[in-house]
Amino acid sequence: MSKPKNTKPPLLVVLSSPSGGGKTTLIQKLLRRNPQFRRSVSVATRPKRKNERSGQDYYFLSEKKFLNLAKGKKLVEWAEVHGNLYGTPRNLVEKALSAGWTVLFSLDVQGALALKRIYPTSVLIFILPPSWKVLQKRLFGRNSDIGASLKIRLRNAPSELKRWKKYDYAVVNRNLRKTVREIEAILTAERLRTSRGNPA
Q: Which residues contact 61 (CB under 8 A, 6 or more apart)?
C-alpha cells in the first residue's frame, strides 16, 4: 500500500535503557500526550509480572511458539535478553511504514541495533540514568524483579550503559517531565528532516 499524500513520514522510534532506566514509564507518558502515536508490543518468553497484561505490555509466549514465529520470519528482530527471548512482530512495523505512524519501541540494545540495520531511518534514543546509584534505587524500588532476575539485570546494566554512543541520541532521565519534552523535541526535528520527504 502506498503512503497517502500529505501524511506525516513514518517514524520508528526506539527507547532503550538498562532495567530501571525509565523507558516504559516514558513511553506511557508519550502515548498519553500524543494520541496519534502507537506502541509496538513485543513478544516475550519471560513470566508475566502481576501488574502486566498480555497484548498490552507484551505478548507472553512459550519458547516453542516464540521460536516458531522466528522461524516463520514473522519477527523483524529477536534476541535473548536476561535469559529470556524477546522479539518485534513484523506486522506492526509494516503497518506503521504504510500508514505514516510514529511507533514507539521499548527494546534492549541488541534489538535496537538489529532494527536499525533493517530500517536505517529508525530513531534510536538511549535513556541514561543520572547515576549508577539512582539506577540501582529505581530498579530495587519497582518491585517487579526479584532474586535471580534482579541479579541478572544488575549484572548486565554496566555493559548496556557502555553502548549508548551507538545510538542517535542520548537523554539523561533526571526529571520525567523534562525528559518527555526532550524526546518530543527530538521527534519533531526528525519529522522535519528533508531526507524523510513531505514534512506535512
A: 43, 44, 45, 69
